[in-house]
Amino acid sequence: MAGLEGEMISSALFANGITRFSIHAKGDAPQGIFCANGQCSQCSLLVDGLARKSCVTPLAAGMELATIRGFPPLPPSGRAVEPGAPRRLAVDVLVVGGGPSGMGAAKELAALGLSVAIADDKEKLGGKLLLQTHKFFGSEGDCYAGTRGFDIATRLEAEIRSDSRIKVLSNSPVVGIFKDGRAGIYEDCSAYLLVDFKALVVAAGAREKSVVFPGNDLPGVYGAGAFQTLVNRDLVKAADRVLILGSGNVGLIAAYHALQAGIEVAGIVEIADRITGYRVHADKIVRMGVPLHLSTTVVSVEGEGRVQRATVASVDRDWKPLLESARSYEVDTVLVATGLSPCDELYRQARSFGILAVKAGDADEIAEASSALFGGRIAAFALARTMGIKVEVDESWIAKREILKSKPGDRITRERAEPSPLWKPVFFCDEEIPCNPCTTVCPSGSIVLRERRGNMLDLPYFRGSDCRGCVACVAACPGLSISLVRALDAEWCEVILPYEFEPDFAEGERRLLLDQEGGEVEEAELLKKTFNRKHRTWALRFKVTRANATRVIGLRVQRPEATAALATPLFSCAAEDAIVCRCERVTFGEIVSFIRDNEIRDVNQLKAIRGGMGACGSKTCTPLYAAAFRAAGVDPGSVAQGSLRPLLVEVPLGTIVNEGAGK
Amino acid sequence: VSSHDIVIAGAGSVGLPLSYYCAMKGLKVLVIDREASWGRGQNRAAIGGIRATFSDPAKIRICTESLAIVSRFEAEHGMGIEWRQGGYLFVAYDEERERAFRELLGAQRAAGLDIDWIGPDRVVELTPGISTEGLRGGTFSPGDGYASPLKTSVAFHRLAMDAGVEFRFGEEILGMDLEGPRVARLRTDKGSYSAALYVDAAGARGAEIAAMVGAEIPVHPDCHEAGVTEPVERFMEPMLVDIRSDSESGNYYFYQIGTGQVVFCITPRPQIWGTDTDNTSGFLPLCARRMLELYPRLRHLRVRRTWRGMYPMTPDGQPIVGYAREADNLLLAVGMCGQGFMLGPGLGRILSEVIAAGERDYRGEYRFILDQLAPYRKFEGMELLK
Question: How many CB pairs under 8 A join A and B?
């Protein structure tokens, strides 16, 4: 088997078509990936005889990989252990997490003269920015709007690495905070480093919430973040056809990423009666040919040892599935994008010990990466002040962060634009979101936000007549929702549309154009295609009838067959078999009856049936327990929470003594 | 004021089994604990070993009873507690330790223990991968073993519930009112309870509860940290104890629990007194070093979780069991010195007999236990296999 040296083993295996990794000790269940982010440990394998998380273990030539069946054997080893010297580091501030907020915080703290260490569990800094191939919303000046996430990460990382006051600990998960003001770090995943610090910034991001449905642990059910890791970071075509759970921005973007990678999307399922992400995102996805099923939930995911079929059904007002409405889809992957939960354990642990700590970014509040850039800097200043440093936070940062993390505002009906002989942009964004790159890229400054709220949520409009048809706005708009229109004569117009895929059609060919919500408008001839390098986007110029010129905005990308349900639904639903604790395979049914039978009012007692006892440190199951208590007739608010204890990531005993590292 | 036959302070290692056995005697029992649920004091921190291998008759007797209970638990009650009769192995790497272990064998056998000296080959057979350099052998007691404290306390709670025991969680005991020589009622932040008998089974808070009637008992908690690893295929059976000490630590011990994980614990040196159960950074490097020196094969085993609990210590390392001088109807069952989990089931059953006999000056077969563990003894010496 072949793979790329240094790529993560899980990605290499996916690239070789292997999606089933190990066999769980309980129920002989095959295990696939779930988070692909070092959080959950479901992807463990025997790597040269040792159990390791394949998603964070780089591939090396000659490596022997094997399935773990049940518990792995402990390798024999006669050699005596020679403990090495303890590794120590002392800094003013330890920043946990090298994503946008952590890097922002580290930079500001170092600028204030504090010694800073920034620890991240990945080799490259950037956090989730590294997985984001789409263009950013927000404003160009403040948060690189219109630029793709991984390009932003590269710029930020270069700044951090060139700052001599910042010690970068990459590939180094922080595994615990201790009462004596120290952090334990699994340095470069090969040594154990104890860091003394005066204050802590927890900017560790967020993790995908698991979701409870029968079949939720089948190989092929995994997080949208994992999908982005495989597809965007490691460039692996991880699936042939996916179903996506959740219509938030994460789910919507996952659909977009799938299509970019040549993966079909059978649909997006949303239990609420409305889209929870940005409308422009959703419109764009629908135009590409992905159906959005609102008021719909997943009933069951089935297959022989891997996902082969997913069944969904409409829900009633109480979100109970109506099985008579069930539809089954043939898919090989189900992406979970039902929400994120903050990775704030270290913050809570530190605070419970009375250690000075702040949190920033998603660890603080789930929001767009653009707001995290400011959140990190604001948190840094707040921390510096607590440490007795006289600084004033720039008030405008706070305002910007608030706007960048705001939920969508109102939907506003735009007046219909009329084509004229001069170029003019036509806008298809009608929901207030924090986004303005079109206003900053326009060389003539002809695009402005029309004042309603007086901030970045306001919608852009074309002011006046000075449009040169340069396509900067068309290419920069992250929502692909600006066209340029000019009338050729009384009957025909030229329309320039954005296209982010490789156009597999030539000038002179005809293509079906769609309106904002994906409705078919007319077939039009492609006059010209040009590639905008800065935004890596194609501008396609079509000849469109005048009546339709300001209605068309997109092209279908996906063939309709990809979204068809099976002729008859095919499922055997057993809701109680859904897995809550993935590490230990504890089912919803087991938990509910245990709660009932033993009058459980304390999450800690679920450990007796192994709930939360696995390798992930109860990070994945904890958010799911409330539903189990509710199902058992217990108010989750009356239940004592599970206790926090190190370690967050498992570390070998030999590493803890820095074996072989010399004295 | 509600009325019961017995009010037990503490739903932990001792209180839970005691409540069950008392209820089985037909007594109306109330258990009060300030935690949100049972076993959340120090029982949650127990590592699960159950041995009768001690140096004194009382603890040997109590734990023999515990072993009888837990080894038959699943068959009797249909609830699994991950009991495994893996035995206890105390290893000796020097002459001094060998002599001390051998000298104890006589007394241990006289107290009915199945224990013997084994040579290095047998030690290696029981614990493949153990360092053989300087290994002289050890004492092995195959009747000892281990169970899951979590599962055991859930099971005892369940049995107690089914037997009619009433539990009140999240309730803080504020005081006990004396009327003459007797406790008339026990007050909490939520109510007031009266009973014929009150039992202090409050573990690390035992002295605090006893002080509510003016009794001064020498129970002082010290702190120990423990950890658990990932699971691996079974490679060792016994609980392995190394009682050697070095400049940073005293004895330490570890074993492979029913679920394949290795649980470990160490006695820091100097001892850390107090009630702080927050994790410290020193524990893992220290305990890992000592474990790996003894058992290099563990080097690849990944640590999953660590925690810290208290040993409610007495000056001689033995529990305090008996009636308080200050109140005729207050029974003390405290100072388990970190062995509450293994002492609890046996002590619960034995005390239920003592209580059912109904007299303060009980003269039955367990009298020697009450004598040896009397609250007002001299507290001389130290139990050798603490």
Answer: 158
Question: Minimal Cα distance from A353: which residue of B?
Answer: B278
Say whether A77 and B133 touch across the interface (CB within 8 A). no
**pLDDT surpasses 60 at A146:** yes
What the block records as the tokens of B335 is: 């100072």
Q: Confidence band (pLDDT; 50, 70, 90) for A564?
A: very high
Q: Which of residues 74-113 of A touch B (CB under 8 A)?
A: 74-81, 83, 86
Strand segments (E) across A429-536: 447-449, 460-462, 482-487, 492-499, 510-514, 520-532
Q: Which single residue is written with the structure tokens 């405008």?
A: A396
Are B276 and A77 in contact (CB < 8 Å)? Answer: no
Closest-CA distance of chain B to residue A95, Å: 18
A610 and B37 within 8 Å at the Cβ level: the answer is no
CA distance, residue A59 to nearest chain B CA (Å): 19
Could A656 and B37 be called an inter-chain contact, meaning their C-beta atoms sit closer than 8 Å? no
Helix axes B340-357, B57-71, angle to 10 degrees: 100
Distance CA(A273)–CA(A321), nearest Å, equals: 13
Measured in whole angstroms, the distance separating CA B379 from the mean position of its chain's CA atoms is: 19
Q: What is the pLDDT of residue B359?
A: 81
State which residue of chain A sits closest to B231, comparing Cα positions.
A71
pLDDT at residue A143 greater than cutoff 90: no
Chain B interface includes A645 (CB < 8 A): yes
> What's the confidence (pLDDT) of residue A87?
95
From the centroid of its chain, how far is CA B307?
A: 17
- For the full predicted model, state whether its pTM sits above 0.90: yes
Q: From A390, A362, A349, select the one nearest A178 (Cα to Cα).
A: A349
Q: Which of B44, B48, B238, B47 is nearest to B140 (CA)?
A: B238
Residues A73-127 pLDDT 10s:
998 876 889 998 889 999 999 999 999 999 999 999 999 999 999 999 999 999 9
C-beta atoms of B299 and A78 within 8 A: no
pLDDT tens digits for B325-339? 999 999 999 999 999
DSSP A450: P
**Could you report the per-residue pLDDT of A519-537, keeping only the tens digit for each?**
999 999 999 999 999 888 9
Number of H helices, E strands in chain B: 10, 19
Q: pLDDT tens-digit profile of B170-184?
A: 999 999 999 999 999
Q: What is the mean pLDDT of residues B228-232?
A: 97
For residue A354, list chain B residues with Cβ-Cβ distance below 8 A. none
Tokens 């350099």 sit at which residue?
A: B133
Other CB atoms within 10 Å distance of the CB of residue B112: 13
Which pLDDT score is estimated for A662?
A: 60
Which candidate in A40, A47, A74 is best for mutational testing of the B interface (most B CBs within 10 A)?
A74
Question: Each residue of A184-208: pLDDT tens digit?
Answer: 999 999 999 999 999 999 999 999 8
DSSP output for A108-120? HHHHTT--EEEE-
Tokens describing residue A44: 């463990």
Say what the ipTM of the complex is. 0.95
Joined tokens for residue A353: 């010990």
Q: Is the dihedral of CA B126, B131, B133, B137 positive or negative?
A: negative
B278 and A599 within 8 Å at the Cβ level: the answer is no
B residues 120-139 closer than 8 Å to A (CB): 128-129, 131, 133
Average pLDDT value for residue range A645-662: 91
Chain A residues touching B291 at Cβ < 8 A = 653
Alpha-carbon gap, residue A185 to A202, rounded angstroms: 14
- State the smallest CA–CA distance between residue B296 and chain A in angstroms: 6
Q: Hey, is the C-beta of A647 within 8 angstroms of any chain B C-beta?
A: yes
Q: Nearest residue of B to residue A182 by CA position?
A: B281
Helix (H, G, I), strand (E, B) or coil at A264: strand
pLDDT of B104 strictly over 60: yes
